Structure formats: structure tokens, C-alpha cells
């Protein structure tokens, strides 16, 4: 899958959870969704891109979720 598609999907997930009043819960929800429904390869590709590009195009919830997840690139 292309990185552009992963970014788009990750941002859509974050947009869904963005209205959660508890930001910690919102980040956890984004991370859990990606953990449950994304393959390890998808997560690693997004992590590698975020590390290289500093997450420039990623929603802040995604940036935090990826940082907190502990996935290995």
C-alpha cells in the first residue's frame, strides 16, 4: 500500500476520534484501531515515514499514537 494511502487512512481514523473530549483516550483509540486493523507492515511503513518526515502531514492524534505505540520500524 502506498504511504499516501496510509496517511489518508490514519488521518481519517484520527478525524473520527478527534471529538473525544479526553485527548489521552482519543490517542489511545487511534492507536488501538491501528493495532487491531492494520497489518504490522502498514504500521511499520507509517512509523518509518513519520520518523523520516517528522509527521508533517499526519493529524496530531496520529503522531502521538504512533510515538506512544512502540512499533519498530
Automatic annotation (TrEMBL):
Organism placement in taxonomy: Bacteria, Pseudomonadati, Pseudomonadota, Gammaproteobacteria, Pseudomonadales
InterPro entries reported in the protein's UniProt record: Formate_DH_dsu
Domain of life: Bacteria
Name used for this protein in its record: Formate dehydrogenase
Pfam family, one: FdsD
Amino acid at each position: 500500500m502506498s504511504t499516501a494511502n496510509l496517511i489518508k487512512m490514519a488521518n481519517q481514523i484520527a478525524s473520527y476520534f478527534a471529538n473525544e473530549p479526553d485527548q489521552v483516550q482519543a490517542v489511545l483509540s487511534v492507536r488501538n484501531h491501528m493495532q487491531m486493523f492494520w497489518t504490522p507492515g502498514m504500521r511499520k511503513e507509517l512509523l518509518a515515514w513519520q520518523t523520516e518526515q517528522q509527521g508533517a502531514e499526519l493529524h496530531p492524534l496520529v503522531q502521538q499514537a504512533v510515538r506512544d505505540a512502540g512499533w519498530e520500524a
